[in-house]
Structure formats: C-alpha cells, structure tokens
Amino acid sequence: MSDRITIELSDVSKFYGEVLGVNRISMSIGPGITSLVGPNGAGKTTLLNLITGLIRPTQGHVTVDGVPLSDVESIFRLLGYCTQYDAFPRGLTGIELVRGVLTVHGLTIREAHDLACEALSTVGLLDAADTRIAAYSKGMRQRVKLAQAIAHRPRVLILDEPLNGLDPMARAEVIALFRSWAAEGRIVVVSSHILHEVDVISDSIILMNHGYVVAEGGIHDVRQEVEEHPYQVLVRCDRPALLASRVFALDHTVEARIHPDARGLLVATKDPTALYRLVNRLAADEGLVIEAVQPADDDVQSLYDYLIGDEGGRS
Amino acid sequence: MTALPGPGRWRLRLRQLLAVTRLELRRCFRGRRLIGLTLLNLAPVAILLLAYLIPEDELTREATPAGLSQIYAVMFATWMLRVSVFFTSAALSIQLFRTEVLEKTLHYYLLAPVRREVMVAGKFLAASLASSIICGVSAAGAYLALFGWLGRGMGRFFLAGPGSAHLLAYLGVTVLGCFGYGAVFALLGLVWRNPTLSVLALFGWESVLFLLPPVLKAVTVQFYLESLLPHRPPVGPLAILAEPPPPLATIAGMAVFVLAVLALAGWRARRMEISYSTD
C-alpha cells in the first residue's frame, strides 16, 4: 500500500442485459474531494457501486490502492460506503447498527463499541445512539449511515447523496467533515445533485450523462476545455459604461451587459486574458476603479449547463 | 485512518463468523414470524397436554413405555420431522438473504471485509441453531408430555430405562434435520428470487419418500434422518423398503452433504451483486 492512495478504473463498463449502466470509463481518483455530478440515470450510483464492488463490471477492472475488488478482506478495510439506500436492519438502535457492522469486521465487542461511539460522536449522533433507528428523522438516518461508513476509519469514502435530508446547519457540519477527511489525505467521492454545494466542496469533479463520463478534472481545468462556450467574467468597477465601450473593440468579445446595479459589467469573451489586460490598462491609464474581477461561469452549475444542459433535466 | 490491524487470518475469520452468527440469531428470534413458528412447533405439545384432562388412572392404565415409544416415533416422524423441522428451517433459512435483499439491508454485510463464504456460514449457523432450539424444545416438550402418561413410572423410564437415551437421540435427529434442511434452504434462498415453489416441491418430494425406490430414497434428507430414530415408525403396506446406511455413515454423510451444499451457497454468494431496484 502506498501513502498516496488512488482509485483506478480501467476501461470499466457495466451493462444490465442490453441496458447500459456505464461505458468504458478509465480514470484515476486521488486524495481530496471528488464530486460526481449528473442527472438521474446518468450512471452515478452504478459507478459508485462498481467502485465498491457491490456490482461487478461487465468488462474492465477497478482497484483501490492497487488492491483488486475481489480481495474483499483487504479492500473493505480501506473503503467506506454511505449508500443512497435509506434502509436499516429492523429493530436496531444507532449504536447497535454501527457496532454490529464493526464486529463483522472482526473487532471485539469492546473495540467495536469504542469505534462506534467515536463515529457517532463525529456525526453528532452520540446522544441518540441508544434510540431505535426507526424513530430517527431523515437527517439522523443520513448521519447514522455516515457514521457506519466512517467507523472503521477508511482511507476511501464513497458517499452517495450524503447531503440528502440534512438541514442547512447539518449540511455545513457534514461538509466541514468532508473537508477535514480530505485534508487528512483521504479520498472522498461524493455524488450529489446539490450543485452549488458541490461547487464549494470539490477539488475535482466527474460529470456524467447517459453512462458516459462527459468531463473530469479540476473545475477550472474542465471549464477551460469547454471552448464552444465563451467565458463569463464579471468586472465590478465604477464606470462600467466606459469598460463596455472598450471591450467591444476586442476581437473575442461576444457580449457585454451592464450589471443591474450599474456597478459592474458582465462580459462574455472567448479570450479572457485579453479582457484582463484591457482592464489593467484602463485602471492604469484612465483611472478606472476596479473592485473585483471574477469568473461568472467557472463553477459546477455552469459546467453542468454547458455539458449536459436541459437534456439532463437538472435537479 | 489506516486499515485496522487484525489477528491471524483464521482467527479473524472465526471472530467474523461468530459476529455474523450473533447478529443473525437476534434477527431469527425477532419479528412476527416467530409467533407462527412457535405455534407450529408447540401444537403437538399442547395436544398432548390436553390429554391430562382425562382422569389420571384412565390415562396411565393403558400407558406402557413400548406403546408410548411407538406413538412418539410416529408423531416425531410424521409431524415434527416432516412438518415442524422442515417448515421451521424453511422459514428461517430461506429469508437469510432474500429478506435482506427485499429490505435493502444486505449491503451492510457485503461492504464489510468479510469473505462471503464466512457470511453464508454465519447466517446458516444462526438459522440452524435457532430452528434447532425451537424444534428441540418442541420435541423435548412433546416427549416429556407423552411419557408423563406413565405417571410414577416415568422416573424409572428415564433413569433406569431407555428414556433419556431415546430423548437425546430424538434431539440429535432434530438438530441434524435443522442443519440438513437449513443448508438446502439457505442455498435455495440464494438461487431463487421466489423460493416458495421450490420449498413446496421439496416438501412433496420428501413426503412421498415411502413410495420412492431405494435409489431415489438416497437423495432425500428424510430417509437418513428416519434411519437414526430409536424406533422406526410403521411405513404402511404400499411402502417400498430400503436398507438405511449404518448410523455413523449416515451422520458423516449428512455432514458432508451440509458442507457441500454450503460450499455451493458460498460460491453463489461470491457471485452475488446488489442491485436492489431489479429485485
């Protein structure tokens, strides 16, 4: 096992009879938070189930830290999976579920109890540990699933829609947890349809549609590859009209609109570097006061719109 | 945040086996299904206890150890072995995987670092132990209720006669039956989405045992179990007789059979994929 852990997918396809699940996916996922984004039926859960061995690829193979999925005794010590299934064995309390699963790992009941308490405490559920899961709210059920996934301290966390059912406060706490896990060098793969949150937490994204990976990598890198859509740049300044008159002189400007508050200009350009140069020149030569220059479509939402758009029926 | 250190591989697997067994035993003794199984198993005990409504001297006058032994042998073979043990094992063993797939909870096991063969063995062990306990209590209860008809002679039958040895033999056959059928039903639960038809087919097959030629008798569980009974029940005029193997060979054969079926179930479990939406 290496220090820098990776998930490797090599030419992985999954067919359900003649129905395509995912097709010819090759990629490497490293430490940090990777978000899996796509519309319903894009193949996100299929991909996660393939990575965790719940289903087997029709072709290709998956390894985690060089360990093939067939080596279950090793792989599931590395890997924790919080599934989308909101289902639990009947009659169990939160602590019984987490502890029970840990004893199946081979831990003694005492060891399992300690780790289960630690995990439930991490997700803020220790006070309700002895309450039956059937009496939990949706958010608590989501958190007990997270506790079960992290209890054995895995280096790889696969989380399918982990923010579902959580209130805003709990979401912020859980996102902070993801960040701390990623900061420890773990791989955190998150499937989510809440795009603005994905945008905030992700180090890299995987965009999927119809079983194919449409794009993958850092958000900025992916954005740069989408050449057919001009960049949207918002320049906050004191004289947007002056800026507008000058940007149309640039070859690559597609559109420019003065912001409704008259304190900025939204420019669509195919050459943002030329725009940045112009803004610098205006500031230096003509005293244009610049408050901010920020990309307006360098985010997951825009990438989703550009690469998948209405076809995906955005959620 | 690293993989947890573990003991030796086989020691670890033994711990995992016991953990699965413990969790599954709790599941077996939970739920409404247990009420039905208790009623099924306690029915003969309840009927035998009803006999105590008859005045004691009338009850004990006709009762002899030999006669009661014959009554118990018939009752054990026709009801307990063919119905109670069979359906208790079916109810507990078939659900081991099927119910978990329907309730979408099997992934908790499949995502643990445990070999699927160990998981199958643990689940099988729990279901077989649970059915052995339920059916064993019934068999012992019925035995005591029946031989209580001997009145004061009961103590002599158990202490100086063959009562205790026969009871142990019946309990042994009960346990063997629970493990034998349990293995078969665990496999059926893994193979079929709806195993009910296969259970009924097996019940039919085992029920016509007495009509089967010797070659086919050899592929029934009942044939071997009945051969181990202290008293063979009468088989009727239409029965085709066959010589059973010696007891030790029968027990060893049953053990090999159970292991072979479990190996098949383990192989099947290894190939299992979770796709709840299609189940």
What would you say this structure looks like, in words?
The complex is a heterodimer of chains A (315) and B (279). Chain A has helices spanning 44-51, 72-78, 94-104, 109-122, 138-150, 168-183, 195-201, 219-225, 240-247, 272-286, 300-307; strands at 7-16, 19-29, 32-37, 59-64, 67-68, 79-82, 156-160, 187-191, 204-209, 212-217, 231-237, 253-258, 264-269, 290-295. Chain A has 315 residues and is an alpha/beta fold. Chain B is an all-alpha fold. Chain B has one domain (10-271). The longest helix of chain B has 38 residues, at 65-102. Chains A and B meet through helix 2, strand 6 and helix 3 of A and helix 1 and helix 5 of B.
Q: CATH top level of the largest domain in chain A?
A: Alpha Beta
Number of domains of chain A: 2
Rg calc of chain B: 21 Å
Largest sheet of chain B: none
CATH topology of the largest domain in chain A: Rossmann fold
Give the N-terminus to C-terminus distance of chain A in angstroms: 39 Å
Helix coverage percent of residues of chain A? 25-40%
Average pLDDT figure of chain A: 88
- Quote the beta fraction of chain B: under 5%
In sequence order, what are the helices and strands of chain A, one letter per element?
A: EEEHEEHEHHHEHEHEEHEHEEHEH
Question: What does the overall shape of chain B look like?
Answer: globular
Helix content, binned percent of chain B = over 70%
Write a compact overview of the structure shown.
The complex is a heterodimer of chains A (315) and B (279). Chain A has 315 residues and is an alpha/beta fold.
Give short descriptive properties of this protein:
heterodimer, A: 315 residues, alpha/beta, Rossmann fold, Alpha-Beta Plaits, six-stranded mixed β-sheet, 14 strands, 36% helix, elongated, B: 279 residues, mainly alpha
Provide the fold topology:
The complex is a heterodimer of chains A (315) and B (279).
Chain A: E1 7-16, E2 19-29, E3 32-37, H1 44-51, E4 59-64, E5 67-68, H2 72-78, E6 79-82, H3 94-104, H4 109-122, H5 138-150, E7 156-160, H6 168-183, E8 187-191, H7 195-201, E9 204-209, E10 212-217, H8 219-225, E11 231-237, H9 240-247, E12 253-258, E13 264-269, H10 272-286, E14 290-295, H11 300-307
Parallel strand pairs in A: 3-8, 3-9, 6-7, 7-8
Antiparallel strand pairs in A: 1-2, 1-4, 4-5, 9-10, 11-13, 11-14, 12-13
Chain B: H1 9-28, H2 33-50, H3 56-62, H4 65-102, H5 107-110, H6 116-147, H7 153-159, H8 163-191, H9 196-207, H10 214-217, H11 221-227, H12 247-270
